[in-house]
Design a protein that fits this description.
The protein has 379 residues and is of the alpha/beta class. The chain is built from eleven helices and 21 strands. Helix 1 crosses helix 3. Bound molecules: pyridoxal-5'-phosphate.
């Protein structure tokens, strides 16, 4: 009995290992903080983290404390840094689980003082300075005050200093200006005899474009761990895309000229056609914007999406495809024969970035993990 809908994602863990080792080599064995936020960009944070732990990542980074605690519950013991907001009431939980938090607002010092007065364990803090990202982070001129305030506390440790690039994939000059500000801040701290254990700023794009001068003693790659370029033009070393998104044909029919397909009748057949329905829709992360413009792979060939993508089902044109049956495998993202559809290709079509395509693949899509060329389950 197979109760699983035949729409699934395959995560090739061998390719994660390949990408990770490539990155490690590219950064000259600096410490790697693997970014596994948003369920590892849709790839499955627990399994990805286990691989990174086994192959020598120094730490992991998540967006929220909840994500970090999920990794602890799964038995992952690497240090974890939460990049985003952590509620002050949860600082004791964070420190007791060896989870470092980010200070990005000077008002947080008050909360750290309260924590410090009752603390049972040391809380590691990384300070995020906004050198140009304009999202979170204290302003550069607040840094010294913030760091000195932390150093006055007994149970809070200033473990790291970091910043985040806005344009390391596109405007290198602006990224270098950010880097200059960051370097000046580090010098300032040194003059005051303060040196954090970790200094980091390089995301995937910076690792590829800015190189060594952005590596300091640790780096924070995300998207390249998953084998995807941070922007369509950036490919300074080969990566292997880790994720494939697959489904199977569930229904095939002939339609005559004049018949329309799907909601809104945005597609009307001009000739007799053979169309197939696949059980995947926008609730699974197949963007509705692919309606009438997207493509998938069947029998090693490209087939067009016809009509509007619906929540759970989509129709494709298989006119002239030989020997086509319900049950045939359909590739939404990945390779089949000599053809490949990448997350980046889909992103370009719907005017977004590959990050959004993979991280929004739906929760109900089963992830199947492959290692040593073998998967545990068949669909
Ligand atoms: C998401 C994120 C990263 C990783 O970015 P990539 O472009 O995926 O390498 C690094 N640092 C911070 C602060 C982030 O939010």
């Amino acid at each position: 009995m197979n109760l699983i809908r035949p729409t699934w994602v395959e995560i090739n863990l061998d390719d994660v290992i390949y990408n990770f080792l490539k990155i490690k080599k590219a950064v000259g064995n600096k410490k790697v903080i693997g970014v596994v936020k948003a369920d590892a960009y849709g790839h499955g944070a627990i399994e990805i983290s286990k691989i990174l732990e086994h192959y020598g990542a120094y730490a992991l980074a998540t967006a929220s404390l909840e994500e970090a605690l999920n990794l602890r519950e799964a038995g992952i013991s690497l240090p974890i840094l939460v990049l985003g907001y952590v509620d002050p009431s949860a600082l004791e939980v964070a420190s007791s689980q060896n989870i470092a938090v980010t200070l990005f607002d000077r008002n947080f010092i008050k909360r750290l003082k309260i924590y410090d007065s009752k603390a049972k364990s040391v809380l590691n803090v990384h300070v995020n300075v906004d050198t140009g990202m304009g999202r979170i982070g204290i302003s550069p001129k607040e840094l010294l005050f913030v760091v000195k305030s932390i150093e006055n506390l007994n149970n809070v440790h200033f473990q790291g200093l970091y910043t985040h690039f806005a344009t390391a994939d596109s405007d290198i000059q602006f990224a270098e200006e950010q880097l200059d500000i960051f370097n000046r801040l580090i010098k300032d701290l040194y003059l005051h005899k303060i040196s954090p254990d970790f200094i980091h700023c390089a995301n995937s794009a910076a690792i590829l474009t800015l190189g060594k001068k952005s590596h300091f003693n640790s780096v924070r790659p995300g998207i390249i761990l998953y084998g995807l370029p941070p922007s369509p033009v950036l490919k300074s070393f080969t990566l292997k895309p880790v994720l494939s998104f697959k489904t199977r044909i569930i229904y095939i029919k002939k339609i005559s000229p004049g018949r329309s397909i799907s909601y809104g009748r945005t597609f009307v057949a001009k000739k007799e056609m053979l169309v197939a329905t696949i059980p995947v829709g926008y609730a699974d992360g197949l963007p509705r914007k692919l309606s009438n413009i997207g493509e998938v792979l069947v029998k090693g060939r490209r087939a067009k999406i016809v009509g509007n993508v619906t929540m759970d089902q989509t129709i494709i044109d298989v006119t002239g495809f030989p020997n086509i049956h319900p049950g045939n495998e359909v590739i939404l993202i990945g390779k089949q024969g000599n053809e490949e559809i990448t997350a980046t290709e889909i992103a370009d079509k719907v005017d977004t970035i590959n990050y959004e395509i993979v991280s929004r693949i739906g929760k109900r899509v089963k992830r199947i993990f492959i290692k040593g060329g073998q998967s545990g389950k068949k669909v």
